[in-house]
């Protein structure tokens, strides 16, 4: 459940000024969505499902004096919250236990953050405005981004007409099956938000600070294959909640989704060799023997299992011949 909560938060790191109202150009709508997530004030309740897990949360968001403030409150299970003030992100658990997180590169739909420039996306997705509907009391426009190959998923986005704020999204597989779903069930956009919706962060009885533990993959390591449109994302130091401390990682993005590649010595490995999948998230690990030393390569992200497996199977060192 905690991992799902982190995923919800990471999903929430993008979703929009109203300059394209009525536009039929999907580029305009995507640009609006990017801006609305940061600049609009809103409160609401949403549900997020992935695989067999489902979570409902309440959110309050605003931009105050140039500082983005947000509070996410879980409505299921144990009481827990995520509070963000600018770059300061803290998870609050029962007993006021607080875990401070570094701002991270998210790994979820829209993780890379759409810039509004759809030229790169258009080479690997068929992008269109696919109609209009009414959701959570708001008129919305549906934008479809359909994958042109089998190495990524397709996305359906429902954006509020006036602002472009993301109201609903679905991530679908190659057969059209829904792998992840996000949707507001109640949403209020604009206006002043009560100070009661936000909280001042105070030291808890037990505060743990997650340090930055990931390091970039040494330049000697490189993928021998990447899906079309994917390239390295700018390196950002980030907290690693999945892999152990000595892992090294690199992130690749097509401008919409991303996956991470981790390389670590066998003695520090935290995942067994093989594949696993939960909802849209796929992971695959394999061993590499380099000059009598064994390494573990793990690829994880919201792409099909075939993608992470092919990337991992083609990882190698530039100057050394590897064998598995």
Question: How would you sum up this structure, described in words?
Answer:
Strand 9 (154-160) and strand 10 (166-172) form a beta hairpin. Helix content is 11%, strand content 44%. The protein contains four helices and 21 strands. The strands form three sheets. The chain has a twelve-stranded mixed β-sheet with strand order 7-8-9-10-11-1-2-3-4-5-6-12. The chain has helices at 2-11, 26-39, 119-122, 305-313; strands spanning 42-50, 53-64, 67-74, 81-85, 88-93, 97-101, 125-135, 138-147, 154-160, 166-172, 178-189, 207-209, 215-216, 221-223, 231-232, 248-253, 258-265, 274-278, 281-290, 293-301, 315-317. The protein starts with a helix and ends in a 7-residue tail after the last strand.
Shape: globular
Residue ranges: pLDDT <50 for 5 or more in a row?
8-21, 103-109, 210-215, 236-246, 320-324
Rg computed from alpha carbons, rounded to a whole number of angstroms: 20 Å
Q: β content, as a range?
A: 35-45%
For the record, the count of structural domains works out to 2
Number of strands: 21
User: Element order, helices and strands?
Assistant: HHEEEEEEHEEEEEEEEEEEEEEHE
Q: Return the structural class.
A: mainly beta
User: Which second-level CATH architecture of the largest domain applies?
Assistant: Clam
End-to-end distance:
35 Å
In which order are the strands of the major sheet placed? 7-8-9-10-11-1-2-3-4-5-6-12
Tell me about the biggest sheet?
A: 12 strands, mixed
